[in-house]
């Protein structure tokens, strides 16, 4: 192997970027990945989390696994929270390690809403926008279980939830994070409120697209307060398809068009956009689907759509995104940025260990063997 350092030549992924006030050495973002390693009663991040994220500190930006904003938010086994002092201390160990290794890390804030299960909530029903079963599954201590019909959240419940997000954002700042990301995708709470099939309310939080998006906008405003407008991201998935209630059509896409446009008037540092589902592993990402929202959002956009090195460089070359997030690739490739620089094929992870707990399949993946910094030639 030559002693030449990898450079950005021909690879936009390796170029520097500014994202919400953060200076990124490259445009390779680690996407949120639920890994189920907080296997303790208090849902506290452990030394394993510090090792795991520290191994991936060469990413331009790390976005953590979705993290519970409150006890009522819980909906998946062994996922950490950010609502207790011991959880804050656990995350501080993580951020200290990542920063010591030169990395940048933001915390994704998560609430499952009606996609939770009574097993997570002491036997109580989860809350949702309306008493409509989202018909998805929740991963409990006894394995996956079908969701139930939730109770409709009262306006007091909604106000308390917005306050929980604000407190979680403040706790993330105390824990040393560089920012926060609001998880508003999938089959989870905020996406449930955005969904006309699940949100059948007739009050200020439903009725039309303006009402349906109010919860997210209230949360954005609340979360931005402790960060004073610095590095608050929003993750959306306009094309999310799951079961009978979650499907993209002209109504839901138009709802997201209006929502993304309105985010321009809020203190949002970046938009993290999940693209259209692909029907085959070798199908190219749908760049037009991403471009629809690039045209509507004025700030930096992170694209996520099962990209590899070539397609990631292509979406940046096309000007559709400012950075690209990678999920599965980061599981088995803690040194993914170096592998991209060397044009190496990424290793393949073991799905059997994705949620099993412990070090195996979490912090034991090898690196490529070239632990050198990536330099941009100017």
Automatic annotation (TrEMBL):
One of its GO terms (molecular function) is FMN binding. Residues 18-340 form the NADH:flavin oxidoreductase/NADH oxidase N-terminal domain. It holds the Pfam family Oxidored_FMN. It comes from the Bacteria. GO terms for cellular component: cytosol. This is Alkene reductase. The lineage of its organism: Bacteria, Bacillati, Actinomycetota, Actinomycetes, Kitasatosporales.
